[in-house]
């Protein structure tokens, strides 16, 4: 009988200790899964460092030979103007003219147009001299004095500004976004009565480059959002 009591006491103590260990194990397991996921934003504004400027003009006529000569002279006039203003030949590209024969248009209403041929010519400037080009765009009316009317307003011939040095600003932006994410996580941990632990998982996110606004396309906004998962500790 005495041995039975001793065995029962030992069994009871063992079960008690087992319960304590199980409780602590569940507690640690629960703490292990406690985490907070936060996002960190970084934004900067930079000036565009590349510009593509299409200069478009149209020619009308009935004699293709004469139109060719006129277009050739106009191209020389425009390229001469651009070089006078500081651009190099490598920055100027003369595209082949696009010719529409109005008399051959199957669905046209006018079978006897006053001018049979409608020719569109595009000279494209591609340069890193963004400020110079912006000045020239405002001065292109000077070509009117030389007998050339530049067409504007067509969507496919818009001036395009780009920023091509993203790799130069990536490190500092990722650092700032990560710092902002950590500040948010620390605030959450403090409010919940926890301590912020290590990073469990991080996602850098995509960089985006957009115009600052419709009126200043030559100023670019670069944006990145990082997503970071931190562990929480008691």
TrEMBL record:
GO terms for biological process: DNA damage response. InterPro entries: 26kDa_periplasmic_antigen (IPR052022), SIMPL/DUF541 (IPR007497), UCP029033 (IPR016907). Coiled coil: none annotated. It comes from the Bacteria. Transmembrane segments: none annotated. PANTHER family: SLR1258 PROTEIN (PTHR34387). This is SIMPL domain-containing protein. It comes from Phocaeicola plebeius (strain DSM 17135 / JCM 12973 / CCUG 54634 / M2) (Bacteroides plebeius).
């Amino acid at each position: 009988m005495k041995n039975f009591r001793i065995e029962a006491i030992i069994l009871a103590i063992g079960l008690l200790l087992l319960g304590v260990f199980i409780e602590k194990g569940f507690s640690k397991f629960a703490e292990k899964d406690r985490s907070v996921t936060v996002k960190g934003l970084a934004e900067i504004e930079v000036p565009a460092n590349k510009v593509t400027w299409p200069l478009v003009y149209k020619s009308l006529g009935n004699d293709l030979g004469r139109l060719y000569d006129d277009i050739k002279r106009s191209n020389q006039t425009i390229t001469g103007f651009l070089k006078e203003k500081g651009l190099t030949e490598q920055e100027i590209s003369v595209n082949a003219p696009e010719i529409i024969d109005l008399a051959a248009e199957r669905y046209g209403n006018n079978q006897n147009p006053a001018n049979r041929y409608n020719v569109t010519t595009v000279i494209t400037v591609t340069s890193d001299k963004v400020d110079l080009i912006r000045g020239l765009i405002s001065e292109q009316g000077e070509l009117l004095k030389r007998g050339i009317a530049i067409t504007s307003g067509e969507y496919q011939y818009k001036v395009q500004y780009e920023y091509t040095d993203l790799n130069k600003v990536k490190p500092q932006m990722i650092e700032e976004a990560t710092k902002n994410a950590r500040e948010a996580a620390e605030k959450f941990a403090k409010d919940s009565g926890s301590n912020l632990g290590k990073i469990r998982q991080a996602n850098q996110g995509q960089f985006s480059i957009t115009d600052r606004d419709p009126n200043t396309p030559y100023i670019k906004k670069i944006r990145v959002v990082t997503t970071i998962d931190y562990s929480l500790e008691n």
